[in-house]
Amino acid sequence: MQMGELASTIHALMAPGRGILAADERQATIARRFGSIGLGPTEENRRRYRQLLFTTPGVEEYISGVILFDETIRQRAADGRTFVAILAERGIVPGIKVDAGAAPLAGAPGEVVTEGLDGLRDRLAAYRDLGARFAKWRAVITIGDGRPSPYALDTNAHALARYAALCQEVGLVPIVEPEVLMDGAHSLARCFEVTEATLERVFTVLRAQRVMLEHLLLKPNMVVPGAASSERPGVEEVAEATVRCLRRTVPAAVPGVVFLSGGQDATLATERLNAMNALALPHPWPLGFSFARALQEPALAAWRGEPRNVEAGQRAFYHRARCNGAARLGQYTTQMERQVESPA
Hints:
It is built from 12 helices and 10 strands. The chain has helices at 3-13, 27-35, 43-54, 70-73, 83-89, 120-129, 150-170, 188-208, 235-249, 266-278, 293-303, 310-328, and strands at residues 19-22, 63-68, 93-97, 102-104, 112-114, 134-141, 173-180, 217-218, 257-259, 287-291. The strands form 2 sheets. Strands 8-7-6-3-2-1-10-9 form an 8-stranded parallel beta sheet. A two-stranded antiparallel sheet has the order 4-5. The protein is globular, with a radius of gyration of 19 Å.
């Protein structure tokens, strides 16, 4: 394993004031998002949208890395350059999503396991040759009646650990993403309980599979009530619960935590990240972001697929990146939402 290179990649990804853009949507997911603005999910439209994001002037001030999809890592901008080259030239680290998505878990009704381990070693090597320097694998944990089961936690933790070990073997930094979904009416306390159990199991299996904790990043959910819950905790309450949960479960050896947004409102995700970084509760790992919708939705709404709106879309994307960059340092204020700056 190339330990020095892995450490260098992590150092770049966790640079202060910067975070990771998750632009790794599968075609079905991006089709739903394009449908919200009445845009057809053609390959050319997907390419144009990703070009808008990756070529936003000045966004490298706040974005340290981008998680790409298989299609995206092979695409080119209008000038013929690959998206990987465009990102690398701007000091943004290219990464790749490598899991094959969630499928029903046999013997566990209502639960899923992430697939994609077959042939993964060769795919990782190929992605590295294409320019990727880190990878991501998402496990999905659902809360419900009798869920999650220990069986589902064990199966998903095993897949995450096998993926992480293979990444480190070929010199890619693994981002380990065990996501406890917001779906449902569960309480914040129940989310805390499930997130704690999930992370405990994940790190137990990572150690058992000989994964070097110093050379991975954790991408967890924030501890929040279910989307259908009547509970409305304050920003500071979510921040305190999340950091307290991580302090119980995440080893100090882990060099960084980058939260997923998980369907949260874009501004609320920023506020909660900021509150964690402003919290008096000490923690050994930097807390950053690896947002998808919370970075992209305002840009998509401003763009609407129209060439004349590219600048507006880039302005919206730059603004959200800037706000989250400040939250990464605990320096975000709501006044920033009224100070929309144009990209440099």
